[in-house]
């Protein structure tokens, strides 16, 4: 039941964003202007996320030096399946 409510809430949010975007493009409403400081912070957050993801992927290579296991982990990650590690910590 919760998943249906969550799906409905996400659909409503997506619909309202689509309506707002359409109104902005058609000129029936004003586009929400973002503060320059906010734009800078958003850009900084995107860069931080990018570099953090790169660091995490490089750290995985150090923690798991076996290339076969790394490839297997990569495929399981892409398939959204959780792999049980043979050596629990």
Account of the 3D structure:
Residues 14-83 form the BAR domain. This is Endophilin-B1 like protein. This protein is mostly helical. Helix content is 73%, strand content 0%. It has 3 helices and no strands. It has helices at residues 2-26, 36-63, 67-78. The protein is elongated and about 60 Å long. The model has no long low-confidence stretch (mean pLDDT 81).
Strand content: under 5%
* Rounded mean pLDDT score: 81
Order of helices and strands: HHH
- What is the total tally of β strands? 0
Return residue spans where pLDDT drops below 50 for at least 5 consecutive residues.
Answer: none
User: How much helix is in the residues?
Assistant: over 70%
Class computed from helices, strands and strand pairing: mainly alpha
The rounded Rg comes to 21 Å
Shape: elongated
| Biggest sheet character | none
Q: How many helical elements?
A: 3
- Roughly how many Å apart are the termini? 36 Å
Summarize the entry for a quick read.
The chain has helices spanning 2-26, 36-63, 67-78.
